[in-house]
Q: What sequence folds into this?
């Protein structure tokens, strides 16, 4: 029996996203390159800072200072992760291969965003645990901070992945990405640091409201821009 | 000279002439026309600590007639970066890349003037008069600095891409990513502790100040618009030269 109907080989967006996500997670489980580089970098940062502040008294100022240090460590660990994944793509020319797939480029962007979000969250969990003995960090019992963490991760990773794909072919792409990305994501950092400070300072949700709003705007706007621009960036 | 170049040249010339007249008028009005308005304890001018030379503190608000239009011009440049970036990605026409770069270059200058004039004033109004004492890391100050750094990063690093098309795409994408930063600068006033005045009208009561503000806004923004047009023409000329060399 023959049919004139063309066979539609293009998978549905949800399926395509799951396939790409599975691929990202499997590769990382086998190589552990991203988790290792981000995690080690984050731990080294904590050790260096811990050495620098070891003589400081464990007073209230110090306990307000540690979360800020953790944010800085997380920010730089994220930049290292984005850089590392862009470099791996460039070395194996994976980006060009991805774009040959019968998927919409936005799905490739989305898969990269979700997988890097997962890896960064794992690294952050390890980092917070490591900060307990090394920086005398008292883990706050504030569930809103998880929302702050998630929004910050999205706000940092969304423009990072977009810019990484644009700069991966450049001379000294790693330095280029870091310098171009930091001014954009410092706004997210401002929201994260402000919200954390408000929660830990006892101001509660009311005090952190405007910072949370800033984080929500960034976490909505940057992925939306990424989805809109990623396809355009790789056209032709 | 092509028809397009002639039009760009004429627009630049008109903007520059109007801008120069406007800037001259602003300087004259700011120095000879507006009265000394601010007194100690009013709004955002705190009582200066004793022992600090306050000789020029209450005259210092005259710097706003440069500070405010420079901030507006930075906003204009952000908007032009967005327009240039979107139009480039849609049409792939090199003229829109030239527009984005020209806007970023002018934004860098306008942003630097905004930061410097604001800091000079804040050192006396909020600080001790010592350089840097007025910088308090408030969200608005910080976000303006971030915006300035973003312009600088775009201009310093776009040349790292050897492929011209890739460079133009990166410029367009970054121009679009940078553009929401200005609305955030604008909104930053509502976040955290705020010494920065919410609006210029906080300190306006004399009609002379209102008139001077209008003249300054248009005059100095025209200077920056002329700068954008001039840099745009220079980049267009550069593109044409490259194309002719390649041919």
A:
């Amino acid at each position: 029996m023959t049919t004139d109907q063309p066979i539609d080989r293009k998978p549905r967006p949800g399926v395509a996203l799951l396939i790409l996500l599975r691929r990202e997670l499997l590769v990382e489980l086998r190589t552990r390159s991203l988790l290792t580089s981000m995690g080690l970098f984050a731990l080294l940062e904590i050790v260096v800072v811990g050495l620098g502040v070891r003589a400081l008294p464990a007073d209230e100022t110090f306990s307000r200072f540690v979360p800020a240090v953790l944010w800085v460590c997380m920010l730089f660990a994220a930049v290292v992760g984005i850089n590392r994944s862009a470099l791996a793509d460039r070395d194996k020319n994976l980006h060009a291969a991805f774009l040959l797939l019968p998927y919409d480029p936005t799905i490739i962007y989305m898969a990269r965003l979700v997988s890097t979000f997962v890896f960064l969250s794992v690294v952050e969990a390890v980092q917070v645990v490591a900060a307990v003995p090394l920086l005398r960090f008292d883990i706050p019992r504030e569930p809103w901070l998880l929302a702050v963490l998630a929004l910050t991760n999205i706000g940092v990773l969304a423009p990072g992945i977009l810019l990484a794909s644009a700069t991966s072919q450049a001379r000294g792409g790693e330095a280029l990405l870091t310098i171009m990305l930091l001014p954009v994501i410092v706004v997210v950092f401002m929201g994260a640091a402000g919200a954390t400070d408000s929660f830990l300072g006892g101001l509660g949700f009311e005090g952190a409201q405007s910072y949370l709003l800033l984080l929500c705007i960034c976490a909505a706007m940057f992925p939306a821009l990424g989805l809109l621009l990623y396809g355009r960036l790789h056209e032709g | 000279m092509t028809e397009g170049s002639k039009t760009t040249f004429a627009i630049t010339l008109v903007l520059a002439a109007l801008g120069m007249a406007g800037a001259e008028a602003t300087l004259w009005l700011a120095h000879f026309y507006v009265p000394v308005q601010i007194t100690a304890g009013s709004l955002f001018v705190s009582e200066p600590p004793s022992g600090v030379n306050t000789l020029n503190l209450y005259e210092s608000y005259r710097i706003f007639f440069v500070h405010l239009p420079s901030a507006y011009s930075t906003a204009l440049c952000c908007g032009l970066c967005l327009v240039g970036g979107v139009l480039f990605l849609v049409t792939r026409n090199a003229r829109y890349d030239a527009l984005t770069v020209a806007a970023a270059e002018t934004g860098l200058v306008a942003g630097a003037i905004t930061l410097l004039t604001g800091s000079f004033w804040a050192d006396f109004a909020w600080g001790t008069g010592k350089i840097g004492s007025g910088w308090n890391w408030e969200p608005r100050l910080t976000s303006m600095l971030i915006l300035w750094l973003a312009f600088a990063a775009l201009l310093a690093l776009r040349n790292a891409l050897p492929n011209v098309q890739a460079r133009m795409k990166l410029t367009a994408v970054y121009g679009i990513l940078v553009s929401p930063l200005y609305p955030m600068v604008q909104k930053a006033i509502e976040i955290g502790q705020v010494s920065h005045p919410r609006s210029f009208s906080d300190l306006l009561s004399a009609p002379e100040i209102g008139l001077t503000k209008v003249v300054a806004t248009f005059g100095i923004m025209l200077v920056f618009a002329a700068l954008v047009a001039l840099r745009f023409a220079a980049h267009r000329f550069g593109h044409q030269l490259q194309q002719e060399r390649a041919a």
Remarks:
- The interface with chain A takes residues 89, 139, 142-143, 146-147, 149-150, 153-154, 156-157, 160-163, 165-166, 169-170, 173-174, 176-178, 180-181, 184, 187, 190-192 of chain B (CB under 8 Å).
- Confidence is low (pLDDT under 50) at residues 40-48, 52-56 of chain B.
- The helical segments of chain B are 3-33, 64-91, 94-125, 139-157, 164-178, 181-187, 207-246.
